[in-house]
Amino acid sequence: MTLTEVWPLFGLVIRTPRLELRLPNDDELARLAQVAADGVHEPTDRPFLTPWAERPPLERARHVLRGAWASRGEWAPEDWSLGLTVFSDGEPLGVVWVSATEFADRCEVSTTSWLGLPHHRRGFGTEARLGALTLAFDHLGAAYATSEAFPDNAASVGVSTRLGYQPDGISRDVRDGEVLVSHRLRLDRERWERNDRTGIEVSDLEPCLTMFGVG
């Protein structure tokens, strides 16, 4: 048996005009870890509740590997997290995660993402999330997508705004002994349908459907 026959998610590919989103092989995962080691935000920024990207380079790289391995090992149709590496011309730029719990009943996903610092402010974040949400809404039947961001995370909030997310309350969490407020954002199907998905293709999804709990 081939790896894709055993784990069909390795065959799933989302293509956008400039990007390819898919699971990486081990060599590509190591290159993705290097992207994280090289930095994913400016030293003065703190965009993540779990401050993994503030750690030393080797720890950042290992965090990427652990996250990829854990998502595969813990995968279940009722509780899954798909970490799609974002590729441009064969080179990894970052990751967009699509996650869900009881998706077959709730029809709701959440997303989070990061890109290597050299790839910021080039529209890749919006394009990658649009591709990931095309999978969720147009191919898996999602009714909602959610995201969260700190108020000063202009890049993440900007992506959500461009794609039609609306305010959905706040979350209060503790980081380093300090209470932080995040804005919750929600995208429903009606507003999703207003997005232009021209040039986005999803291939080899059918063998994966049962793994998402919808087959």
Written overview of the protein:
- By secondary structure, this protein is of the alpha+beta class.
- It has seven helices and nine strands, in the order αββααββαβαβαββαβ.
- Strands 7-8-6-5-4-3-2-1-9 form a nine-stranded mixed sheet, sandwiched between helices.
- A hairpin with a 2-residue loop joins β3 (79-88) and β4 (91-101).
- α5 (124-139) packs across α6.
In short, what is this structure?
This protein is of the alpha+beta class.
Topology, element by element:
Layout: H1 3-6, E1 13-15, E2 20-22, H2 26-38, H3 57-73, E3 79-88, E4 91-101, H4 103-106, E5 108-115, H5 124-139, E6 144-149, H6 154-163, E7 166-175, E8 178-188, H7 189-192, E9 201-203
Parallel strand pairs: 5-6
Antiparallel strand pairs: 1-2, 1-9, 2-3, 3-4, 4-5, 6-8, 7-8
Structural class: alpha+beta
| Content of β-strand | 25-35%
**Average pLDDT score:** 95
Distance between the termini: 22 Å
Rounded radius of gyration (Å): 17 Å
Per DSSP E runs of 2 or more residues, the count of β-strands stands at 9
SSE pattern: HEEHHEEHEHEHEEHE
Reported for the largest beta sheet, the result is: 9 strands, mixed
Summarize this structure as a short list of keywords or feature phrases:
215 residues, alpha+beta, nine-stranded mixed beta sheet, 7 helices, globular
